[in-house]
């Protein structure tokens, strides 16, 4: 616990102004991290203020937790301490907008949806598509390495991030990368901060490269009587020349959630694949045709959507893993691509084994399975046990299972990250070098970093 | 220097015949594609991760610096053993360990030539996308160390976008696995941090790379211009029109003449510049894209646009581009390859300014570059026997990098910092930025044995601090 919260509060008020600092469980309850309510919540208004805030917290030995849109606050282990939450939402300005060079620089608290609106006006797009774009901030997107269906064709944050400004744990400000698409001027420091979950500092500004917006987009959906039939089609797709933006798998429970937005008839017990096809009219219509053929030949029923219905359906697909609300255990399984189907099946089994049916979706061509459990009266230990089994299968396939959201009681029974892979020793050394006092997001990361 | 005793120990690790210490032998390892030279004390040929680890541990025991070497094609002095010590020759670790098409991955050793992997993948219908122009002679491990680029980066990214896992011998000799075949490995992205670290954070001995299907179709065009500005403006126009070609390469007149002198690719020697443009992907719209590009080129003043009719014509156009550095060697005894990057729309300005620099220092500077990436390679010609000329060459090189930094770009797009650009780092990085990078170096290599004396500028004098 912080010994002199009052002194730190006064210091922070001096930096950001009294209205931007709150204390007490009433005001700060909404910023609890795994149930721990922060003593102070502070909202810097500029990057320089953010640096001073971090410096003041460091000087006071206060543990700080950066907070963007709050969408990834469930990720990781319960924090060792939370003295101050640093909200970045006031840092929401565009710093440099350069459509001619397909490049944008913005402050870290800007919402992804706001960036999407800006780029769309100039027919450009940042092809990173996690759910909840209205909440997700650009800094959070980077720090928590969030991704969505589009990672099949476009990759993840590491493929689009050109530059960062970061406040290091001692309050020093640094700049990583730049705004050109090839840059080897020293170490690729951007990579140190992507997915570091705020443990090495606070991201205050990001620069992304962009893509010209595709001229056209359609969505093709295939409904299959069982999962193996769907996964055979996935295999055939990956071996073909076809270049879908995204290739998503839904188990029956996931499909049931999606049905109202897809505009396809209910088919009890069915699994589904959905692909997004973007590009020129010629390639889109060819791929739409080819997927209809693939789905049908694979024993499925094919439905094609275009225009507004396609956009509505895809918005629902993108946001599915955020639904439904309530007490949730959301886990991300990542394995080599060819094992995706097997792990999706294992996730369903894990749900059955603990009496808590799983909503399973997968980025089917990318090796990523999302398994959502909605616990009822099951004991936490049963849920944790089922997840442990699933994790063992993922790790046996050279992969991992990471808890993205879970009640603290479940996290007490199950480490959020699993067996640390290679390099944990070096990761700990990096943490010690950059944050020797352990003030940035302590305890939430891999190996209790 | 450890000398004899270290050599003896290395022989016990890698075998008697695999250690060089004669002066003629060592001379072959004292240079790369940059201008400086420094002789190593010993060279060891390694054959396995275990051997590399043991060699590195032996170097640690003797406090001897070490640097891994692949094809030695580096252009910034990355493989020169600046403080002497051991060169670890990786070239015999050149096998494909696993071709895993089901997972779209290959596991390879770092001493394999980039092109060899491509040649092995093509019959299976797959490719590894990073393709530096030197792909015949540069190794995959060297590509990792330098985060190498190539002509296809505009659409497909650089080496780091295609390397997902590494087996690394850390500077203390410990063998660690970073990343792997699965995505989203929990923890810091050590793979991403390692790629481009120029041998200063350890030695990679195995890599997991992304492979992708060969495209269904490819169209290659050559646009010929009488003005270099018109050519570079076309580049921005193509991107502005929403197209994402696989390549957008430019060569200027001096380069074209050198290429034609060397290999007769049928390039027009009287034009100011040519643009080599390639579109790939699904075959359905390639004709349409090619036509749209042709129209844009003409609208921006191209006097002629040729479309490769078949694979042979395409290969000939590419042979010219890939052989450009080699061909320019016909123009002068030596040349310094500059490697700066600017935002794409600044290309016309920077090209004009490079021409001004050439005039100011009375130098010939042919230019061949990745226009789509805004990555230019002015090649400053010189004769190393002329010391006055050498001095002007270095000044001109620095000035060109300064221009790139001023225009919002950077001092190295794909060739690395090495020895060449240590001082130029200050053009784009603050003291705090440099200190943060040094923290990384210190964390991985507290003894400063892994390729020491590279990448970082000399400590800043207090009076210059900002």
In short:
With 449 residues, chain A is an alpha+beta fold.
List the keywords.
heterodimer, A: alpha+beta, Uridine Diphospho-n-acetylenolpyruvylglucosamine Reductase, domain 2, Uridine Diphospho-n-acetylenolpyruvylglucosamine Reductase, domain 3, Alpha-Beta Plaits, five-stranded antiparallel β-sheet, 15 helices, B: 466 residues, alpha+beta, 20 strands, 35% helix, 20% strand
Written overview of the protein:
The complex is a heterodimer of chains A (449) and B (466). Chain A has 449 residues and is α+β, with helices and mostly antiparallel strands. Chain A has helices at 5-16, 25-28, 47-60, 112-121, 138-143, 151-154, 190-193, 227-239, 252-262, 281-297, 307-319, 340-353, 380-396, 408-413, 424-434; strands at residues 21-23, 40-42, 64-67, 84-87, 94-98, 103-107, 124-125, 161-167, 173-177, 202-209, 211-212, 216-224, 246-250, 271-279, 301-306, 329-334, 358-363, 368-373, 400-405. In chain A, helix 1 (5-16) runs antiparallel to helix 3 (47-60) and helix 12 (340-353) packs antiparallel against helix 13 (380-396). The two termini of chain A are 18 Å apart. By secondary structure, chain B is α+β, with helices and mostly antiparallel strands. Chain B folds into 5 domains: 4-89, Uridine Diphospho-n-acetylenolpyruvylglucosamine Reductase, domain 2 (2-Layer Sandwich); 96-213, Uridine Diphospho-n-acetylenolpyruvylglucosamine Reductase, domain 3 (2-Layer Sandwich); 217-326, Alpha-Beta Plaits; 332-406, Alpha-Beta Plaits, CATH 3.30.70; 425-464, no CATH class. Chain B contains 16 helices and 20 strands. The model of chain B has no long low-confidence stretch (mean pLDDT 95). Chains A and B meet through strand 9, helix 7, strand 11, helix 10 and helix 15 of A and strand 9, helix 7, helix 8 and helix 16 of B.
